[in-house]
Amino acid sequence: xxxxxxxxxxxxxxxxxxxxxxxxxxxxxxxxxxxxxxxxxxxxxxxxxxxxxxxxxxxxxxxxxxxxxxxxxxxxxxxxxxxxxxxxxxxxxxxxxxxxxxxxxxxxxxxxxxxxxxxxxxxxxxxxxxxxxxxxxxxxxxxxxxxxxxxxxxxxxxxxxxxxxxxxxxxxxxxxxxxxxxxxxxxxxxxxxxxxxxxxxxxxxxxxxxxxxxxxxxxxxxxxxxxxxxxxxxxxxxxxxxxxxxxxx
Amino acid sequence: xxxxxxxxxxxxxxxxxxxxxxxxxxxxxxxxxxxxxxxxxxxxxxxxxxxxxxxxxxxxxxxxxxxxxxxxxxxxxxxxxxxxxxxxxxxxxxxxxxxxxxxxxxxxxxxxxxxxxxxxxxxxxxxxxxxxxxxxxxxxxxxxxxxxxxxxxxxxxxxxxxxxxxxxxxxxxxxxxxxxxxxxxxxxxxxxxxxxxxxxxxxxxxxxxxxxxxxxxxxxxxxxxxxxxxxxxxxxxxxxxxxxxxxxxxxxxxxxxxxxxxxxxxxxxxxxxxxxxxxxxxxxxxxxxxxxxxxxxxxxxxxxxxxxxxxxxxxxxxxxxxxxxxxxxxxxxxxxxxxxxxxxxxxxxxxxxxxxxxxxxxxxxxxxxxxxxxxxxxxxxxxxxxxxxxxxxxxxxxxxxxxxxxxxxxxx
Lengths: 249, 412
Prior knowledge:
heterodimer, A: alpha/beta, six-stranded mixed sheet, 10 strands, B: mainly alpha, abc type-2 transporter like fold, four-stranded mixed sheet, 17 helices, about 70% helix, elongated
């Protein structure tokens, strides 16, 4: 379960003054559900997800992730979250197996558990061929699989994806999308940010449209279509972004 | 603070570093091979130049003295000088290093001396030029011998011995132990090398583990794990410290081998067939390399908090950078900041006192110079150790603080 309650994050910029990267963002994501956070570049998606992953601290408001408060129990939140983003890279000089062992250890897993889970993930993601090769030599697909395995090594209840298909070719992107669906099928709470409409249409149960740090519209795809009297998600997005905020208050 | 997390981070960084060719070059190759090799080369070249200067008699021209055949003949017979034929523009030839010196004999020199008088002989030379100085020394030696013989003869005519004009003989006696002499000669250089190597050894890992990780995107991956930021800082800091100490250890080992084995080989090779030169070279090298071993260990002890300070400071500065390149532009100029106080410590006459004991780098440099000379000022040493440790703790605290700042970690 993820519950954001008026999450706000402001940054100070010498030229632009105070920037509200996330402005009173509130939503709920239930276990087994995929929540799509849709927004243009700079809309506040990454900031919102970093706040949920406790990489950033909220200026005001709060959130609970897997039952833990993002401010008070930040370490517990991270222990129950798998965070995958275009910006979360792998250590080039470690092998895939060493990478999984490293993050397994950081999550407090015993060596035997790490070995068992590595074996299972390698089976599921078809990683055996490159499991003992250094990540620096990997293709994009191999890197993606290793990153996915890295986020799953501690079997988190909540998965946070921040534009995970950014810069990937179609095959690598499909692997990610398939993996996101599997996470949902296993009962994990999933939040998925992107600016690619088709991905949201394909995999998200609920869609939140974010712009200028504010969540402007939220609902299932069907509900949004009804509300905006538009079938095409892109049109819905444009109308939502151009329309006055509906959920800011 | 969770020590399991700290050592997990440290262990991963250590493995990562040992697989990185660039770190190994800065930590192992440069201190063990390049630095001592360079030092040995400088020493070898200086001895070879000295040997070459000693083996070649300098070219000297005699000006005047046509009426003093005895003096001219004496100079001509001197095996340590080569007499050049008279030349017109001899001043220019000295400048052009075609002539090393010109000896100007005054008119009637032999006659003046025979009559019991005194005379002035001018030696024209090029100040600061080693072969010209050698020529002056040889000419001076010739005239000193001649003067001695004349004085002895003149005293004998009056029924006196040379002792009559030298009632007091001054004889300086060295009480400094050999290690003190060695300490003065190279004592300042050793900590200088240690400090430079400690700094350069920490430089690359500090930049790689902070700005490098930010640039590669692995920092965010690490921050997603349920590890306290203090634990991450300490794990990484320990790695930087290991690299720095590893560099110092490699250099210490390598320098010991270079000076002990290389020194004797050098002495033998320099001496060649000339036993006297070999002995002289060997004694010079011996005096240079005789250092108090306990003092040397104490130097390592003094350098230790300084290494902690370097590691923490470099970590903090590099962390601020967005990329490895940016970190390089911040860190590289710092070498000068390290070099300056370390160089001041090398200057003769600059001695350790209560004020200088508080100046980072300079204090360790000066204390180390004393330690390898066998001089132990416990009170000052304690102050230096305590102040450097305090600076190191402040720098480490600053590193943790910086790591907790979102504006630094996610600076784009």
